[in-house]
Write a structure and sequence with these properties.
407 residues, alpha/beta, TIM Barrel, 2 domains, four-stranded antiparallel β-sheet, 16 helices, iron-sulfur, chaperone
């Protein structure tokens, strides 16, 4: 089931933000995240804020969801008020499975964002999708509506691995959907992989990488399996039905991904993300990683504007009820302290191929960076230029490097 939201101070009923947060909205970029919480079935590893029809219960309808989100969008416009309207640089529709909504609804939601704030002429507009939830016609409808990028949840090309993850698409369908998206005119197509699933063999992952490359996509995301408490997969492991993931296997898989993708013309730009060109990089995720602003629409969605972060109530029913009453769906918020903002800046920017400026570190942090350089974890070419950039070995140990650099 979905994980627990963090604690925080109460969000005002009208969603009002401190004046200080409104002064420079969008100065470092502005994006919109739109959460669609619906899934046809629940994958065994998933603890995202998503719901099957059986889990939703009575009173929640996919048919009315677009109208509910548009109500939050109207509230967002009131909250930002007289501040200079931000230009929307990126839109990311995530889930869940956004493409369980009719393509016309997804088009209407994008139009609502454009009418509210205005899409930049070169805006990146992404939707996530499951391979079995799109058709050539729905992809053409989305592309015509202004969607420029699609991210397909492939996870693996091996039937056994898909079964352990409770994925319902057949092996090969993700690559087919990727080709259909390119045929529909999508500028950029991503395939997501998960590695380290119990029972996955090295040759299974190699076959997945081969299929990704052959599909002709220009972006790949690859993540180690994380077993979250409360999921069906975690329960199976506690009962001894499946072994827990191995860190050594995960490292081997990561090295295999780097080798295969590099040979195919991809370059890493974030620890878990590779692109064929700079234009193929996910600009929305880069917006997150570089501390820009975004408004999160939908149940459980998180937002960040001017150093204020807040998150909406989780259940679609509670979300709809608050908006129907004219209230903000925000559950709680936090105002980041300078120390918290610095910690997140170091943690996120070090994961990027562009690296972290050494001058943002204190004396202890720079001393730790020098040790990481001596240990082969930081690039010796970038370091004299004033940047901490992870080596391949450093990427495998990224979390440990970050801990050492922070106070």
């Amino acid at each position: 089931m979905p994980g627990v939201l963090p604690d925080g101070e109460t969000v005002p009923v009208d969603g009002a933000l401190p004046t200080t947060a409104l002064r420079e909205v969008g100065a470092r970029g502005f994006g919109v995240y739109l959460h669609v919480p619906f899934c046809a079935s629940r994958c065994g590893y998933c603890d995202f804020n998503t719901y099957t029809a059986a889990e939703l219960g009575a009173g929640v309808s996919r048919a009315s969801y677009a109208d509910t989100v548009l109500a939050e969008l109207a509230l967002a416009a009131r909250v930002l008020g007289d501040a200079p309207p931000p230009r929307v640089d990126t839109v990311f529709v995530g889930g869940g499975t956004p493409t369980l909504l009719p393509a016309d609804d997804l088009a209407r939601l994008l139009d609502g964002i454009d009418r509210t704030w205005g899409l930049a002429a070169d805006a990146e507009v992404t939707t996530e999708a499951n391979p079995e939830s799109v058709t050539p016609q729905s992809l053409k409808t989305l592309r015509a509506a202004g969607y420029t990028r699609i991210s397909l949840g492939m996870q693996s090309a091996a039937a056994g691995v898909l079964a352990v993850l409770d994925r319902t698409h057949r092996p090969g369908r993700a690559a087919e959907a990727a080709r259909e998206a390119r045929d529909a005119g999508f500028d950029h197509v991503n395939l997501d992989l998960i590695y380290g699933t119990p029972g996955e063999r090295a040759e299974d992952f190699a076959a997945s990488l081969d299929q990704v490359v052959a599909a002709g996509v220009d972006h790949v995301s690859a993540y180690a399996l994380i077993v979250e408490d409360g999921t069906r997969l975690a329960a199976r492991m506690r009962r001894g039905e499946l072994p827990y993931p191995s860190d050594d296997v995960a490292a081997d898989r990561y090295l295999a991904a780097e080798a295969a993708l590099d040979a195919a013309g991809f370059s890493w730009y974030e620890v878990s993300n590779w692109a064929r060109s700079e234009a193929a990089r996910c600009r929305h995720n880069l917006l997150y990683w570089t501390g820009a602003d975004w408004w999160g629409l939908g149940p459980g969605a998180h937002s960040h504007v001017g150093g204020v972060r807040w998150w909406n109530v989780k259940h679609p029913s509670a979300y709809a009820q608050r908006l129907a009453a004219g209230h903000s769906p925000g559950l709680a918020r936090e105002i980041l302290t300078p120390a918290e903002a610095h910690m997140e800046d170091v943690m996120l920017r070090l994961r990027l191929a562009s690296g972290l400026p050494l001058d943002v570190l204190d004396d202890a942090g720079r001393a730790a960076a020098a040790r990481a350089l001596a240990d082969g974890l930081l690039d010796p070419v970038a370091y004299p230029q004033g940047r901490a950039v992870l080596t391949l070995r450093g990427r495998l140990l990224a979390d440990a490097v970050v801990r050492d650099l922070l106070p």
